[in-house]
């Protein structure tokens, strides 16, 4: 069965849901936008009609909101709210959905207790979010639980540095050389990042960025490994 065929179902399994998601999130960036979103809306309407099913109220509201705009963007959580997914899968989302990036960072810090930079996905039974199938959940993978408008990590994808650049920046902004960055030092770093990356980062959101990132800190001490989760690109 294809992703389009799954859209005709009265109830969609978790496996079918993720087949749909990966099909329409064709570039794998963690959300649907532009042509991806318009293709999904068009094929959703066609599939429901072919199956003799009306759009649900949630689907109608979704089509009204995103059907006539080309700049819409949705994440995996938003999709789970409109598709007729089996109830236990919906309950998972309702229990796990996080309201803000700060909540998300606090949750990450709670589970990544060894500061390894990833969470064992078997332990959390969240293999469905393990995009690269390595058996470990990275910060950006688990961030798909966030509504797309709250997922500030998307913004930082375009400003990540290589390890060498990141280490140089960390040492520059760790002005007292104590091995961690405090809130004032982070403020200076983020201001410079916003100034250099105006297309990706909005300086008006600086306070939100700072609050979310500091949620990873240990009593106000943001160590290199935690900041690297946000600003250091993986190297193959």
UniProtKB/TrEMBL annotation:
One of its GO terms (biological process) is regulation of presynaptic cytosolic calcium ion concentration. Residues 12-47, 99-134, 161-196 form the EF-hand domain. Keywords: Acetylation, Calcium, Metal-binding, Repeat, Vitamin D. It comes from the Eukaryota. The keyword Metal-binding applies. One of its GO terms (molecular function) is calcium ion binding. One of its GO terms (cellular component) is dendritic spine. Pfam families: EF-hand_1, EF-hand_5, EF-hand_7. Buffers cytosolic calcium. May stimulate a membrane Ca(2+)-ATPase and a 3',5'-cyclic nucleotide phosphodiesterase. Belongs to the calbindin family. This is Calbindin.
